[in-house]
Write a structure and sequence with these properties.
- Monomer.
- There is one protein chain.
- This protein is an alpha+beta fold.
- It has two domains: 251 residues, Creatine Amidinohydrolase (Alpha-Beta Complex), CATH 3.90.230; 139 residues, Aminopeptidase (3-Layer(aba) Sandwich).
- Helix content is 30%, strand content 28%.
- It contains nine helices and 24 strands.
- A seven-stranded mixed sheet has the order 18-19-20-21-22-24-23, sandwiched between helices.
- The longest helix is centred in the first third of the chain and has 24 residues.
- It is elongated, with a radius of gyration of 24 Å.
């Protein structure tokens, strides 16, 4: 059913239309999931585009931008300072890149639009913070998409979060209505006061799309006529979902059921260990480490190892309580990680990466050459995690134990090696 705005027609969708759009959104989400696993250093953006195109066509859908808009690719892939509309080509993904993938799909006559920014580890903490802030701005905007509210309520929520984070909204990038056309009314800015513009009504389908710069809000278009870049060369992040306004929580069409890829980095507080923490930390360490140590060394966790008096122990807490801890100290010219333990119920939410960034920043601030740690050879999951962050095996100082090292670049470098 169409609704007339000031100068436009804004549609609310029937249940049959929403059913078609749910199928389209699921295809879009599935293509993103395939690409999430395909992105790795060395793969070219053209190869990623080919993977996406094959997945789209296999699902009986088509790219919304290749034929209708004449874009030279099935999807947009934008790297680092590229804001959007990046053309797939021969560029090979590198460690330290921010890779923005924007997928627009048509299925059964209806469109969905979805974008993610992928971090190719290792990246500087500032880049990771930009990505986290943009993801959180998307979540804040979606939460304001309620019937009876105004379109600019979404704009205000996004803009305030980005402003509070110290970044800049790319102002010509907007959210939009979506349905039988890729871009429909209403336009949804990512900044501005609340309480303005068309009212949100149940059955409206919109794409919410914050695009955020670490530096200037101004952009330039490259000579290819498509790719926008930040005018000052600063990094940019981009997230987008297609959602339905319902009588309650907004429904995200472009998210797979049970997917964790939209989960923002877990807010965590770091504090020094207190004496009354020790029993809880020891219990947590035993629960997470005993099985590994019994297999590797034939024994359980020992308190004297966990609470080395020469080391610093930091406790990790979320709003729900104890999340983990880590212990570290300086050893000659490196920062040495003695122990890191993350509670099993929140593993996979980015806490491990936050801890490693904390240690690398601490090593850099003290002028140290790198970060080192020991890991048991039977702890293959941990070894893969550290390898993805750039750690390399150095030697085996103890039975069934690898010493791993990662060099830390100077403060002026924009990548961690």
């Amino acid at each position: 059913m169409p609704m007339k705005g000031a100068d436009s027609v804004i549609y609310t969708r029937t249940e049959q239309e929403l059913s078609n759009m749910r199928q389209c959104g699921e295809i879009n989400a599935q293509v993103h999931e395939v690409l999430r696993h395909a992105i790795q250093p060395g793969i070219t953006t053209r190869e990623l585009d080919a993977i996406a195109g094959a997945e789209i066509r296999q699902a009986g859908a088509k790219s919304s931008i290749r034929d209708a808009l004449g874009f030279p690719g099935d999807i947009c892939i934008s790297i680092n300072e590229e804001v959007g509309h990046g053309i797939p080509g021969d560029y090979a993904i590198q460690p330290g890149d921010l890779v923005k993938i924007d997928i627009s799909i048509e299925y059964a006559g209806y469109h969905t639009d979805c974008a993610y920014t992928h971090i190719i580890e290792p990246v500087p903490a500032q880049a990771a913070q930009l990505v986290a802030a943009t993801r959180q701005a998307l979540a804040a905007g979606i939460q304001c998409a309620r019937p009876g509210g105004h379109c600019s309520d979404i704009s205000y929520a996004i803009g305030q979060m980005i402003q509070d984070s110290g970044y800049a909204v790319i102002r010509h990038a907007n959210g939009h209505g979506i349905g039988t056309s890729l871009h429909e009314d209403p336009i949804i800015a990512n900044f501005g006061p609340p309480g303005r513009g068309p009212r949100l009504r149940e059955g409206m389908v919109i794409a919410v799309e914050p695009v955020v710069s670490m530096g200037t809000r101004y952009t330039l278009c490259r000579s290819d006529g498509w790719t926008d870049v930040t005018a000052d060369g600063s990094l940019c992040a981009h997230f987008e979902h297609t959602i339905v306004i319902t009588d309650g929580q907004p429904e995200i069409l472009t998210k797979l059921p049970n997917s964790t890829s939209d989960r923002p980095a877990l807010p965590v507080q770091y504090r020094d260990m207190r004496e009354d923490d020790k029993s809880r930390l020891l219990q947590l360490a035993a629960a997470e480490m005993d099985d590994i140590l019994i297999t590797a060394w034939g024994r359980r966790v020992r308190p004297d190892e966990i609470f080395d008096p020469s080391a610093t122990t930091k406790v990790l807490e979320t709003e729900d309580g104890l999340a983990g801890f880590f212990t570290y100290s300086e050893r000659q010219d490196v920062m040495f990680l003695h122990t890191v333990v993350i509670a099993s119920d929140i593993q996979g939410q980015g806490l491990g990466k936050q801890v490693m960034r904390y240690l690398e920043e601490a090593a850099r601030a003290r002028g140290l050459a790198g970060v080192e740690l020991c890991v048991q050879t039977n702890n293959r999951r941990a070894i893969r995690f550290y390898e993805r962050l750039g750690f390399q095996p150095v030697e085996m100082p103890y039975a069934n134990t690898k010493l791993m090292h990662k060099a830390v670049t100077s403060a002026g470098d924009t990548r961690w090696s």
